Amino acid sequence: MSEHPELIVMLTYNDQTVLNAPDIFEECRNSKASIWGFKELPLPFGEMKKLYNYMKQCGKTTSLEVVAYTEEEGLAGAETAAACGCDILMGTVFSDRINRFCLEHGLKYMPFVGKVWGRPSVLEGDIDEMIAEAKSYIGRGAYGIDLLGYRYTGDAVELNRRMSAEVDAPVCIAGSVNSFNRLDEIKEAGPWSFTIGSAFFDNKFSGTFAEQINKVCDYMAR
After folding, report:
1. Mapping DSSP to helix (H, G, I), strand (E, B) and coil, where does residue 122 land?
2. Which residues lie across from 196 on neighbouring strands?
3. 37 vs 213: CA distance, rounded Å
4. How far is Cα 214 from Cα 32, in angstroms, rounded to an integer?
5. pLDDT tens for residues 190-200?
């Protein structure tokens, strides 16, 4: 693993894949980010598979984040990720069926913890209970945890810090990372990774899409 939290670039806005995702990736494929992903909606499967294949050809690690709250929807997302040759499945409400599918198909499964609802997602729950939940999932074979830290209705900084420190597995802080202040908080917490999607489209880090990616990567590496 990297010595600092890794950026996962999400070609998404408000938890939906942008329709020009292939064009944006083409413009930014030589940027410093090595992990790329998007959501399960609304690109057609054929376009998703083509883009993921191209990302892999460019040497990228790939992720599909599935914003779904039923086992059937989550399993469908896992099947899509496997068919697209993705490396990581993020999101879904944990289930043993999804977990077993991921183990059988070489997918690194990083489910949500806590009570997650809506789109864009909102996270609710007790921190101690979410940490126990995460440890249970890891114990059952999940690779890591998709933590909607900055979507949390409670103390996001405390949640991010404790989850990163107390769960012995990769933690990704996903959603609403939209300022250098939050990048500082993520550095302090020390998770495996974090996602940025909408903030790049909103130019929160000032520059072209590729310039923002490189700026964030450089900032985290300092």
Report:
1. strand
2. 9
3. 14
4. 6
5. 999 999 999 99
